[in-house]
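# step 3/5: fold
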Amino acid sequence: MNYYVRPIFSKKNKTSNHYKKLGSSNLSFDTVEIITRKKNNIDNKFIKLKDINSLQKEELKIVLDQITNITAPRKKIASIDFNRPKIMGILNVTPDSFSDGGKFNNFDKSIAHALQMIKDGANIIDIGGESTRPGAKTIISKIENARVIPSIERIKSFNKKIIISLDTRKPEVMKAGIKNNIDIINDVSGLRYSSKSIDLIKKNKIPFVLMHSIKNPKTMQANTNYENVLLDVYDFFKKKIALCESKKINRQSIILDPGIGFGKTVQQNLNLISNIALFHSLGCPVLLGSSRKSFIGKLDKNALEEKRLGGSLSTVIYALSQGVQVFRVHDVFETAQAIKIFNKL
């Protein structure tokens, strides 16, 4: 039997002492959803924290362990603290990315855009040199390095404190990025592309984003069958975290990204976002990368990428209410403004 625990966040009732907080946040919960899975049988129930000791002994221990993960403070990653939500601005130095391919693969334009995103409120710049849109083909490491390394060098030359994330699945590119002082690796393959990646991460003690995906970009939308997408993604993370810990990589150097749009249907994406608080029970910061994704267009008369800002902001606002700590976005100014007003409210 597998157990999964999702905190149900709510305004704190002053008459109750049975509230706990999501680690490094002000979000409170006094209720959890407990989901169980045994083979293909999935069940769930909601239970107040004050009644938690009524659970059977085996279930109680597992549930309490997961609640401990939920409430544990999130340690800093690459000098980023998680007391407030962080914005990861997307910089695609590619000719063919799904939303802004070709816009910033000119060197001067890419640098200007990065600096503007920082001015607009980005805490992290995520630089990618290979498109991972559905149907995209793999490029060789030499080409990818030629795209990303000059931008990393130039941005770092402006300010060494700027946090740079390198969006790549190739260990050769990771290695070149590390030599050029990147702060985070963002591996969209979820450590599946190469067995060398995890050893490189361990050797250099570099934090990384672990994203869920099941195939490569060229074929990822061809078969999107899951037994249960939410629990399957959770199990994927759990297995990869265990692998990392077996290599002496601390789970608190890992950021989890459920991989919205990567081998998922519209309904599967909605399921993941609406239940995203479940991933807090793994004890890692959670990242949402839903910006301008195709499911937004499909839900709104096939709106093109540049017409998906409203839908992108809706996912950010909802995920804020669920304790998500990092948002990977194209529209930094608008996202920063939305977060600011949400927090004031």
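# step 4/5: annotate
The chain has a mean pLDDT of 92.
# step 5/5: archive (pending)
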